[in-house]
Amino acid sequence: MGAAIRASSKKISVFMLTVLFLVIILGSLMYLIEKGENGFTSIPDSVYWAIVTITTVGYGDISPVTPLGKFVASLIMLLGYGIIAVPTGIITTEVTLAMRKRDQKNEVCPGCGKEGHDLDAEYCKWCGTKL
Question: What is the pTM of this model?
Answer without folding.
Answer: 0.62
